[in-house]
Amino acid sequence: MKETIQKSFSYKTIVSILFGFLGFAVNFWFTAEFAFPPFTAAVLIGLLFPMLITLTWGWKYGLLSALAGGCQSMWWIWGPSNGYAIFLVVPPFTLWIIWHGYWAGWRKKQISYPWWLSAYSVEIPFRILNTINLLTLSRWAITLNPPLWSWAAGAANTIPMPFSTFVAIKQAVVGYVILLLADVLLNLGFVRKFFGLKEDYNQANTSYIISASLLIGGFVWLIDSIISYLVFQPGNSLLDLLALNIPPHDIFMRTIFILTCLAGGLLASYLMRGQHKSDQALLESEEHYRSLFESVPIALLETDLSEVKKAIDGLRKQGITDLRDYFDHHPEAVQDCASLVRFVDTNQTSMDMSEITDKADFLENYDFGSETQSLATFKEELIAFAEGDSVHEIEIPYLTPSGKTKYDIKRVSIPPAFMEDWSRVLVSFTDITDRVQAEVELKGYSNRLEEMVADRTSQLQSVNEELEAFSYSVSHDLKAPLRGINQLAGWISSDYAEVLDLDGQEKLGLLVSRTKHMHKLIEDILKYSRIGRTAAEKQKVDLNPLVRETIEILAVPENIQISIENELPTVVGVYAHFEQIFQNLLSNAIKFIDKQEGFVKIGCEVKENYWQFNVADNGPGIDEKYFDRIFQMFQTLAPSSEEDGSTGIGLTLVKKIVEMHGGRVWLESAVGEGSTFFFTLLKQGARNERK
Amino acid sequence: MRGNKPILLVEDEKVDVMTVQRALKDLNVANSLEVAGDGEQALTFLRNPDNIRPCVILLDLSMPRMDGIEFLRLAKQDKSLRKIPVVVLTSSREEQDKVDSYDLGVAGYIVKPVNYPEFVEAMKTIDMYWTLSELPPLG
Question: What is the pLDDT of residue A253?
């Protein structure tokens, strides 16, 4: 709560004003005047108080303290003789307070700042300007005297140059003395507390050093008085020499000495604090890294392989170039190297993982020379490092002392700074047991899944085969009786021609035609089922001659023109299948063309990884609502399908073949404007487009 | 057909038998027609020394008990029967059936036409061919 009070606005205001009065009082009562007849030069040491305010709370409070307290408003008391020059001599004191307050405020916001922005340094430009003012403008202002106001009627209108120079020097000295004293005070614990400032690092030591400096100064003062009394001025009383009537020279020297002592003490405490800060930082960072080292969830070991490095250099000197070969033939050499490894440090995670209880014992006595697996990885590490690698990584399974199987990634690395002598080698073990176990589990699952899929697939396959065999045999077995019916009907028609009337003949004729249609249906179904079943050999098929031959077989009516619009590609697959596609699409187109001049155009577009074929006609077109239906089995759109031999399987067949080749088939059509059938075929090596 | 040896028709479907009989009659083929209902019956007929060996066997493939392929396998293993030409007369267009048949040394493979006139044409061709073609002694 005290802190809050000392930082509150009213506290600061009151203290600022009080300090102003204090400064006024000190200036008034404690005057060290220098006689320079007829002029006086005063040491206005009271400025220390507004300076303290401005340095701690900034220029605004500093200004308040300087003006409101009267510290700066009593200039008329001191300088009637200055006349007009008063305007140029006194206000700089106020500016001085503002100037330092500004920079103190700026410094407070910085983490660190360069020496040339300290109070002692920013004093320099101010002092230079003020000196120039004193030596030029002020002197000119004095020449205008006497001023208009009555009480300064006696003001001089010339002053000697040495006096001006003296005033400038005096002001500079006093300025620095005030800054020094303010600095000293602000380094004292109780002063800091008073101003609500944070205590510095090692505040006690700082206060102690400064008090000691002051004590030394006081002691010298005392000694000087005694020696003066005993040796140089035995006529004077000791009390006069000590305090009451000190000769000016002595007072000057003693003051200088005390100030020097204080400056020295201040300097010492600054240096000490800097050292302390860096010690502190070092300690903190050490602690930081130590805690990182200990608590990181990776087992860390710091080792020293410098002896090992020497041993390997020794082997090199003996002319051994192939280290692996050498180690293979001299396994004991690896063991020797292992015994040269020195363990420097290990962290808590490492001890937990390896179930080590005594760290010191472990670092001192651990020897992995008897562990075959450790030796094997050690050998690999040595070979890698000897070849100039700085990192070696390996996944290792191991047994903990309590018999659990664990998996680690062991990573051994030499920091760049230690590549020369291997005196620091960092070994880390990352526990990946969970991951490995998850992987094993996952593998188990995926194996089981694969088995299940294979199982189901084979079940499906056998069901499918069964179905196919069934449909095949059913279709096949249907053919024989059908043929029988056909035959018998034909024979009745011919053998009993005299007995049957025309109506009977016609009905028998219809019977025969229906059996023929059914026969074709069965044949088409068999064809459809055969596509998937027969494993005919795939080959390169040039579609240009294939399409030309297909057109020839189709017996195209004269009023229909079939044209191949562009060069067709060579594809890979079963010849008969492609033949089937074009045959069905072309025969469909021809069958339905209802124009005087019909045309069918075959084209092909090359796409990135497939070909897109199109077969366009100027037939009657197909309503969009039938687009899906026409690819389904037994779906015909023409009513007289039995007469023209349509079975409704042709497009189903096309769809099956195209999809078997990883393509798709669709159409664009509008009633009265013809239809275009599209289908795609994958280029060889391209992946299934539908995926 | 050559000589007066009989023709052996291995066929289970009665109408098909009738069709062959009728076609042969229409074509005025003089050779007699022996009919076996399946492969077993055909083998029994062929192995009976009392029967005259046929000059040609017309073989259906799908039959009960012993089908045509099985019959072919056994017949072609039999030295005494191997030389008799076998013409497959079937309704199957299956590639596998054709391959198996030719593997077993058939002399021809004819898919039964669905209407009678075409069937007669097919029979006529068979008759002409085996009238023209010389045969080894069939024992």
Answer: 83
Q: List chain A domain ranges.
A: 2-187, 200-295, 296-431, 452-535, 536-682
In a domain, residue B124? The reply is: yes
pLDDT tens-digit readout, A437-466: 898 899 999 999 999 999 998 988 888 788
B11 CB within 8 Å of a chain A CB: no
Is there a domain that residue B31 lies in?
yes
The answer to the question of residue B70 being in a domain is yes
User: What CATH number belongs to A2-187?
Assistant: 1.10.1760.20
Is the link from the previous residue into A38 a cis peptide, with omega within 30 of 0? yes
A109-117 long-range contacts, Cβ below 8 Å, gap at least 24? none
CATH number, span A296-431 = 3.30.450.20
Does residue B137 lie within any of the structural domains? Answer: no
Specify the pLDDT at position A330: 87
Instruction: Establish if B26 touches chain A: CB-CB under 8 angstroms.
Output: no
The DSSP 8-state label assigned to residue A30 in this structure reads: S
Residues 6+ apart with CB under 8 A from A116: none
Please list the alpha-helical segments (H only) found in A232-247. Answer: 238-239
Where do runs of H (alpha helix) occur along A538-628? Answer: 543-553, 575-592
Q: Which helix (H) or strand (E) holds A396?
A: strand A391-399
Domain count, chain B: 1
Out of B91, B115, B116, closest to residue A476 by CB: B91
Cα A643 from Cα A636, distance rounded (Å):
12
pLDDT < 50: residue spans in chain A: 1-2, 686-691
| CATH number for position B97 | 3.40.50.2300
pLDDT bracket for residue B88 (50, 70, 90): very high
Q: Which residue of A has its CA nearest to B95?
A: A534
**pLDDT recorded at residue A214:** 86
Q: What is the pLDDT of residue A609?
A: 83
Partners of A408 in beta bridges: A396, A431
* Helix B116-132 and helix B14-26, axial crossing angle in degrees, nearest 10: 60
User: What's the pLDDT at B136?
Assistant: 80
For chain A, what is the mean pLDDT?
82
Instruction: List the domain range (segments joined by +) for residue B42.
Output: 7-132
| Partner A contacted by B16 (CB < 8 A) | yes
Identify the pLDDT of residue A536. 64
Q: Quick one: pLDDT at residue A89?
A: 73
Find, among B72, B7, B71, the residue nearest to B40 by Cα. Answer: B71
Q: How confident is the model at residue B96 (pLDDT cuts 50, 70, 90)?
A: confident
Q: How far is B115 from chain A (nearest CA, A)?
A: 6
DSSP secondary structure letter of residue A676: E
The predicted complex's ipTM stands at 0.73
Taking an 8 Å cut-off on Cβ atoms, the answer to whether A484 and B95 are in contact is no
| The CATH fold of domain A536-682 | Heat Shock Protein 90 (3.30.565)
Residues of B with Cβ-Cβ distance to A479 under 8 angstroms: 91
Minimal CA separation from B13 to chain A, in Å: 8
Which token pair is A549?
């031959």
